[in-house]
Amino acid sequence: MRHLWFLLLVSLPLGAMGQSTTxxxxxxxxxxxxxxxxxxxQLRQLLPARSVAVFxxxxxxxxxxxxxxxxxxNPDFYYLTGYKEPNSVLLLFSEKQNINGQATTEVxxxxxxxxxxxxxTGKRLGxxxxxxxxxxxAAYPNTDFNAFKLDTASLQxxxxxxxxxxxxxxxxxxxxxxxxxAQFKQKVGITNGKSxxxxxxxxxxxxYDARAGQQVQQEVKRQMEADPALxxxxxxxxYVAAKxxxxxxxxxxxxxKEKLDMSSLEEIMNQMRETKTPEELVLLRKAVAMSAIGQLxxxxxxxxxxxxxxxQGIHEYVYKKYGAxxxxxxxxxxxxxxxxxxxxxxxxxxxxNNDLVLMDLGAxxxxxxxxxxxxxxxxxxxxxxxxxxxxxxxxxxEAGFAQCKVGNDFQAPNQAAQKVMADGLIKxxxxxxxEEARKYTMHGVSHYLGLDVHDRGTYxxxxxxxxxxxxxxxxxxxxxPVDKKWWGIGVRIEDDVLITNTGWENLSKGAPRSVKxxxxxxxxxxxxxxxxxxxxx
Length: 537
What we know:
The strands form 6 sheets. Strands 6-5-4-1-7-8 form a 6-stranded mixed sheet, with helices on both faces. Strands 9-12-13 form a 3-stranded antiparallel sheet. Strands 10-11-14 form a 3-stranded antiparallel sheet, covered by helices on one side. 38% of the residues are buried. A hairpin with a 2-residue loop joins strand 12 and strand 13. It is an alpha+beta fold. 37% of the residues lie in helices and 16% in strands.
């Protein structure tokens, strides 16, 4: 379609652009411009002296031929601005700068208004809209970025993330993301072939050495052996050679902060986004609640003759009914052995039959995503083997919940749940030693949740107002070296947990979780019981 609308633009009158939106055209519960302003100020206070943090909008991704995927903004960019359009760049300075006669710490270069394009792809804010509606102090069209003077000589550090390499160049647009990236590289002196791989390892060392130094050493050594550009780095060589924690700490202390810094910004954003504000929790609660209701409604509607895709559709209809814009990640609906594939997203099995059905789905509401998993029997009744594995995972999850306390190490829920599962698998005769459990419990139990389904965080001790998942799972695929009665049983139970100074709260408790409650819910009638479509010929 892109090529078509470019051909037709010449014949469109300027008046063809859509009418301006009124408040009733949009939901009333988006994050406010004051929220985003506070996040920018928080970031500014965490920046090193005489520095600038640079953020680029997410690339537009092509789906097929002239059709793009629905645009999804870079979560950090959205967090700081509320801006949801592509082809833009944000600069946040630690101290005020004189930008076109205006003293400010922030400037954004946004895609300009274009009446013809807006007739096809929707209204743009433009620079004035960014200032007026989003509250950024200085905003200019992205066409001005090329001429913008970024005074790198007066800056001690330029902080940015790894620049994307696979950005499409739209020939007709001289200020798309491809061009903005090229212009930025020119401004800061990044030449083709310049490697920042050592900075990624510096970041990992600074972030994780105190908690997992020996494992970090092994990973640094592995990457040095794989990448010749890292092999002769003196700091990395000294770190790998360090004999103990004290020697490692001495190396960490002298790792330099470079002018072009591709690691520090990640540390700062991990710290900021790990804990949620009250405004964020309102949206997260809604995303999780509608995802839990989706699980509840599917339990009532499920029949053995349904397909995996039909189950997916019911979940996602519930999300849309509540106003969720997207799914937070590709929906997983795996029946039988498909449930043993951790990220199975094809969802194409035509009949569930009487197997267990693992359903890992989450609504994304105003940018914030849930992540809720339930595993249920398609016919409404667990077999003895299914029930034994399910209840083992259930007890493991309870053990994980108990470790969700402010101050506990991030790995505490995982360690507690893994021990329960290993002991239980031994008792069932599925394994003989605890070490064998990892064959059937392949993943960790927790990750942060927020603007990303695997959200930013420090992975240190739990803090007040942190949201994580607790999601133990046991997966015994067909062909496993165990009694065949266990084959094809995959169980994951995943809930979204808010950790505060007063304890933990299961945000997704609205989705039945115990064997008793699941079977009772599945016996209830569904609003979809009488929904029949014509048979396709």
